[in-house]
Amino acid sequence: MLRLSSPARSTLSACPFLSLRNSSNPTPRFFKNSRTIPRAFSSIVSSSASLAVGDALAAHGYFDRAPELELLGHLRNGVAHGNVFRIDNPKSLTKYPAHNRLAWVRGDLKTEFEVVAGLDGQPVLFSFMCPGDALDLLMSVGLYLIRMGNGDPLRP
């Protein structure tokens, strides 16, 4: 019987990941030889999705520039530029804050993420934000845009 275990700490990063287990073989064969596979897979998925959605948002001027849309924009740019934040205009963060405090989905730990000038040059994925947190942000952005399109209230 296949089941998901509770999140465990990877020795390669500070981000939790879920490992697949079954009762007869607690560690699937493809995880035995390389502990980097879960990290690489989650990084590819969250990076690709962040790039694609971020590019689509940029094509529309980030709509109303809501904080979660701005956060995804910074995440997208960091992922696209070597997984490092590049804050060229720190003053813009005052006019257009980038955080998830008002987001529809914030994960089980309700972790708050905010882009500040001090993050310039710092790693994005596996440091500032884990891939699962990036997926939570993508879900929030999707819900926000659906509600915007339907004319529904934009905040939870």
Mean pLDDT: 77
Number of contiguous helices = 5
Number of distinct beta strands = 4
* Strand percentage: 5-15%
Largest beta sheet: strand ordering: 1-4
How much helix is in the residues?
40-55%
The radius of gyration is: 17 Å
What are the segments in which pLDDT stays under 50 over at least 5 consecutive residues?
1-13, 16-33
Q: What string gives the helices and strands in order?
A: EEEEHHHHH
- Basic shape: globular
**Sheet of most strands:** 2 strands, antiparallel
State the distance separating the first and last CA atoms. 37 Å
Helix/sheet category: mainly alpha
Task: Provide an overview of this structure.
The protein has 156 residues and is mainly alpha-helical. The chain has a domain of 109 residues. Helices cover 42% and strands 6% of the residues. The chain is built from five helices and four strands. The chain has a two-stranded antiparallel sheet. A two-stranded antiparallel sheet has the order 2-3.
